[in-house]
Specification:
By secondary structure, the chain is mainly α. The chain is built from 17 helices and 2 strands. The longest helix has 28 residues.
Length: about 325
């Protein structure tokens, strides 16, 4: 995997300005709001979505100062979803640190998530571009629907691959898509470029989530900052399990169905053996690489530049990471 600087190097100054801007925008008259918001924003995230905004703007020769608040608002929306997700999932660790709900409780976490959402929309209003506002109004709505859809599928072993793809497109890929599409809009790109960059973000988000779900069964807990098998423990049937149930024996499928319905880690070892035996991990990996390749194909809409190369590298790194 390429070092982090490989995709940050060309926008290092913008990235530094982004981090300063984020801290400035976390101000609140309520000390606990600032404390929790700063904790979660500073918890070691890679800032992937705002980085996509910055790279896309540069790839389209956009030097509009509004690219910094645009990249910040994407991070605020993402962080708000994390705060809410951890409450819903009853998570106690993220990126190797205590979750906000584990430190301060569910109520403050939900409310600070709301604060970050509304601060993001304040930034959108300040940018003053109706098309960008429309993109994020739709994206936040779709993301919320995706989270509810995933919640209704908890402990449901009958979810199909198509239904799974619908969920991850909504809950993960949608914000990637909004990031790259809004950057193209801000850059004054052609409608074709806006559409292609939206598709790039969508495919990249799908690749990222597929890799994430793969790592849940073969990743390194220390590197990921979470435990192997967390999805199974929460009763989530992601693609490795769906594929294993589809191609495994009836006995193997029955055991996985039982594990999903029950949740917890009682059946983790036999489940790991089954998904390995059935090639479900390789199948998931191939799907992730397929999405990454589709993302890179969308970049043909951009002029040749080092920034375009970094966006292609971004897609490669999404499926070659170990955390």
């Amino acid at each position: 995997m390429q070092p982090k600087s490989a995709i940050h190097d060309l926008v290092a100054d913008d990235f530094a300005a982004l981090n300063t801007y984020i801290i400035d925008q976390l101000h609140s008259r309520v000390p606990l709001v600032e404390k929790i918001a700063e904790y979660i924003v500073d918890s070691g995230g890679k800032r992937m979505r705002p980085l996509l905004v910055l790279l896309t703007c540069k790839a389209l020769n956009c030097n509009d100062d509004k690219r910094i608040p645009l990249s910040a608002l994407v991070e605020f929306i993402h962080t708000a979803t994390l705060l809410h997700d951890d409450v819903v999932d009853e998570s106690d660790m993220r990126r190797g640190r205590d979750t906000a709900n584990n430190k301060w409780g569910n109520a403050p976490s939900v409310l600070v998530g709301d604060f970050l959402y509304t601060r993001a929309f304040e930034l959108m209003v300040n940018i003053g571009h109706m098309d960008i506002l429309k993109i994020y109004a739709n994206a936040t709505n779709v993301i919320a629907e995706g989270e509810v859809l995933q919640l209704t599928n908890v402990r449901n072993p009958k979810i199909t691959e198509a239904q799974y793809m619908t969920v991850i497109k909504a809950k993960t890929a949608m914000l990637f898509e909004a990031a790259t599409q809004s950057a193209a809009v801000l850059s004054g790109a052609s409608q074709e470029q806006q559409d292609m960059m939206a598709d790039y973000g969508n495919y990249l988000g799908l690749a990222f989530q597929l890799q994430d779900d793969l790592l849940d069964y073969q990743g390194d807990a220390g590197a990921m900052g979470k435990n192997v098998g967390d999805d199974l423990a929460e009763g989530k049937a992601t693609l490795p399990l769906i594929r294993a149930m589809e191609v495994g024996t009836e006995e193997e499928a029955k055991l996985i169905r039982k594990a999903v319905r029950k949740g917890g880690l009682e059946f983790l070892e036999p489940v790991l053996e089954i998904i390995s035996k059935t090639g479900a991990l390789q199948y998931t990996e191939l799907k992730a690489f397929e999405m990454a390749d589709k993302a890179k194909a969308c970049l043909n809409c951009l002029p040749e530049s080092p920034f375009k190369e970094r966006l292609a590298l971004f897609a490669d790194m999404a499926v070659k990471r170990n955390s």
